[in-house]
# Entry
Amino acid sequence: MCGIAGLISTKKIPENGARIKKGIQLMNDRGNGLGAGYAVYGIYPEYKDFYALHIMGSTKAAMEEARGFIARHFEIAFESEIPVWNKKIKDHPFFNVFFAMPRPSLEERLPGEETDSDYVVSKCMQLNKTVSGAYVCSSGMNMGVFKGVGTPLDIYDFFRLDEYSGYSWLAHNRFPTNTPGWWGGAHPFNMLEWSIVHNGEISSYGINRRYLESFGYFCQLQTDSEAVAYLIDLLIRRHGLSITEATTVLAPPYWSTIDRIADQEEQEALMFLRTTYEQAMLNGPFAILTAFKGGMFSLTDNTKLRPMTAASHNGYTYYASEISSLYEMEDNIKDVIMPRAGQPIITRFETETACA
Amino acid sequence: MELRFDQPVHQSLFQPTFNLELCDGCGECALQCTFNEIKIEQRGDRKIPTANRRACGACHRCEVTCPRHAIYIEEKPLALRKHGVWKANDVKRVHQQAGSGAVNLTGFGSDSELPVYWDRLVFNACQVTNPAIDPQREPMETITTLGRKARSKQEFQPGKNRSKLIRLNMPVVFAPMSYGSISLNLQKALARVASEKGLLWYSGEGGLHEELYPFSDHAVLQVASGRFGISPQYLQKALAYQIKIGQGAKPGIGGHLPGEKVLPGISETRMIPEGSDAISPAPQHDIYSIEDLRLLIYAIKEASDYKPLCVKIAAVHNAPAIASGIVRAGADMIYIDGYRGGSGATPSIVRDNVGIPVELALAAIDQRLRSEGIRNQASIICAGGFRSSADIMKAIALGADAVAIGTAALIACGCHGCQRCHSGKCPWGITTNDPEISKRLDPEWAYIRIKNLVEGWHHEIKELMGLNGIYDIASFRGNRLILRGVGLSEKELSILGISHAGE
# Structure
């Protein structure tokens, strides 16, 4: 059991974390203090064209090694420690942010690193794998992931999220069960612009992970949810699926439903997605909320074994595991959306042109 | 007088024993025994059955059909002094060979004591954090597609994707058993079940009998080294084709259908003279290299309007590299066969000493194709002694797309494993086409038995998926986190790609 909350201003009006904190804190019973985290979009406008690499180092030495790794592979425009308030949580890893651009010209890159995005993915994987004790928490532009072991309030205070201003917020309250509660295993999980928070357990993780490996993604964070972030990056960014196609892959219609579709073209397209991406399908109960640079979308499993609700009001869309949390974020909500099993709820910024 | 001390030639290992208090001398047992083990003798005013102790192979036909339940089969081996190295089978083999000076033949799959890894693997189950799914109440799908799949959406071509993949209702196919090695009745029963249940049946190297034409849209027809029964029409009829390179029970050697089994129907279907031995050479004489295989793959594809093509190999040391070559040569399916897979006739020295456990071969092939990024280009069908739905699902979790069952289907139709398939006298009418004996296998009954087995396993497969919280078999396939090993070494675990129980 975990708690999820999200908030997005479709007009990109920035705000600090006060409202999302209220929303996630209301669902304290959905976590147990062993993990919480936030993802915020729009926080680094001055470096918005650089990859903001949030690095977690379990020791100073690990952070030094990570810095060396990044300096070898990227041009660093600016770097700094991520400010923390460690009066309450005293035993914690170190966090730095690096605003970086890929360094080598195209000729020097390895196969599969041709685009800047592919290069960043490849280097994040390499860093997680080869630099002992250091992990990439987030790697998107103009956004960041802040997460760790503690309650949502602990982590909020630790990372001083009052002081950040963003137009799209994700929050997560963790109740770890099958995997350890550690700083790298807290949500959100991120790859480039994609950040996800997840409530549930992925029974298909074993094959999702092996599938991702054949595309150069290696799950290092001991948590099934990590695979979802990589799957979304693979499907939408690399393979060019629309959001609805990607959610169809992750929570596909039953074969019995596909067989009943009368429109031959639609049926054929669905069958193609189903057979091509069967190893990317998620089994088990889940509710997932994904933030990206164009907006936010939620998804539940095919039988909706985990809750997800949403509501739109006055240029904002709110997402939460529980309806009460929606009202905690915005008191004046009129209509609450309760999506059907497997049905995504997609919100886009008004200024963005449709990309799906 | 010739000196003979060995048991097998003069004395069979088994013997029917008659309870003369129950026996009414009806003589049914003597009629049922196709090996002339039982004679009816007149003793006074009574007819009583007696056993020769020459030929009994423990097929249990007499025991099961005796209307008075007056027969049971006893094991009668010589009471050899126990020895840790010279076990009864070793002594027997030497005796037999010293008598014959020939190669010892046997049937069935290997019974060697090498580990059966399926027995060392256990499944996970949902507890608390993840709800198990009840297949009686929730949708549970086992639909499996075989063939060459796309790697990404960018390969989508509207209107062209529909026919390329083979769709099965569950990940099970019937292993290749040729008309000739098994009876037409049984082949028909298998074909009927495959058609009705949305599975596949493989023909084996025996051609396609006319009576099986109605079931050819679920058939995978074989092109093996003997090229028996192949015609332009044969290459048009099936759903898919299989090139047989090797067989698990006899890797590296060819097939042999004894002349005794080449009866009129078989002679016609295989296009060979009646009574002649049908000998398939060890290699295909037009395939001496991987590039030759590629030529044959594309020759068959050209002739068959590009139906999916499967290549069957035995599980041997280098299977992963061979599999990679086969996929790159253009095959759409790889069929990997282990030494526990049945055979009509095979030298026991080959069956029991050649090839590697299919579990390890399967795990290594799946991983190899993934590492090379070509796993999507071919489906893997795993075969070789699958005994239960649990074995099947363990193979699926290791990475097989589907599993082939052969021996289990024969057992479903009455086979008791007497291992005399090559004799042409199968008392159950399974591996014979002798018109008198083969009519013992009622095709309708065989169809129902095989159908029942498939349905039972289908239920169990859904249970195993449900208790792992998985509603679609695609999420079970290759999902090695579902498995744990018990009592396996680090090396075995690493090849299987699984953790040890307790980890």
Notes: The mean pLDDT of chain B is 91.
